[in-house]
Amino acid sequence: MFETSPPLLEIKNLSIDALSAHGRRSIVAHVSLSLHRAKSLAIVGESGSGKSVTALSITQLLPSPPLLYREGHIFFDGVDLISLSQANLRKYRGGRIAYVFQDVFRSLNPVYSIRRQMAESLKLHRPDIHDHDQEILRWLEIVGITRPKERLYCYPHELSGGMQQRVMIAMALCTKPDLLIADEPTTALDVTIQAQILAKLRELQQELGMALLFITHNFSIIRGLAHHVAVMYQGRIVEYGETEEILSRPKHPYTQALIACIPRLDDSLKRLPMMESDTFVR
Q1: How wide is the angle at C-alpha 147 spanned by C-alphas 143 and 150, nearest 5°?
Q2: More confident: 162 or 11
Q3: What is the pLDDT of residue 193?
Q4: Can the peptide bond before residue 66 be classed as cis, meaning omega within 30 degrees of 0?
Q5: Per-residue pLDDT for 282 more than 60?
């Protein structure tokens, strides 16, 4: 469906380099993406393709150096985030733009209780909320935490991996963001918990009307989750379009190879497809 309203997030010609002992090397090259309110976009590609670097660059979370912006713009609700100071970025980071990171075991602070960590987010981004416990319990219940009152004063190590990931999602959503960036949020979880987390993310994205940017290497999980897909290969977008269109009629050889690698129960053992040579030379 054609969108008439301006996108909430628009990345234009973004290029990022990395400094190393061997000189300057391109990590992300000429990436352009857009995401509208209440829509979801999945960036798909193998490890090292530039997905997470692109996502982290939105609110300048990249370590600089070694990673350096070369060119491009990132507009959020009409504001160029790259031009903002760190002080002004804090008005967006964690509030209007929230992250759920892939390594939940390192994302939660091990020495603080769940209540303390979530209350800190509320204090920073929703100062109008005075009863923190009530609001925290509400969000823990929304994301499917069983017996939330018992979990309130737990420390991360006292929770399972799936429950920790739900806490991370609750912490991100309690600020009522306009954009949620979920970077491989289910990588370390078993398939049953993974399916539950993805279903909850899809449900909350639709219920809250927020935009969702989903980062993954796994093509098999995006059907029903993302409206559009951007396929990244060697730091570039090689294919971009509606999810069903790309899944049913992929055009780029890399996209075709990724989809062919999705396990199927009716397939016999076979050699997985590989890219024979680099499509792009940096």
Answers
A1: 115
A2: 11
A3: 80
A4: yes
A5: no
How far apart are alpha carbons 78 and 80 in whole angstroms? 7
Please compute, for residue 116, the number of CA atoms within 13 A of its CA located in the half-sphere on the CB side: 10
Sheet holding 236-242, edge to edge: 97-100, 179-183, 211-216, 40-44, 228-233, 236-242
Q: How far is CA 20 from CA 44, 176, 274, in A?
A: 26, 39, 28
Beta-ladder partners of 31: 14
**Would you tell me how many other CB atoms lie within 10 Å of the CB of residue 220?**
13
Mean pLDDT (whole number) for 270-275 = 66
pLDDT exceeds cutoff 50 at 278: yes
* Mean pLDDT of the 142-151 span: 90
∠ CA 159-149-141, nearest 5°, is 80
- If pLDDT is split at 50, 70 and 90, which confidence band does 252 have? very high
pLDDT at 281 (0 to 100): 40
Are the C-beta atoms of 222 and 243 separated by less than 8 Å?
Answer: yes
All residues at 6 or more sequence positions from 107 whose CB lies less than 8 Å from its CB, including other chains: 101, 168
- Sign, CA dihedral 43-46-48-52, equals positive
Helix (H, G, I), strand (E, B) or coil at 99: strand
- Rounded-to-integer distance, Cα 145 and Cα 140, Å: 5
Phi, psi of 82 (to 5 degrees): -65, -30
Token readout for 53 is 């670097």
For residues 217 and 273, the model is more confident at 217
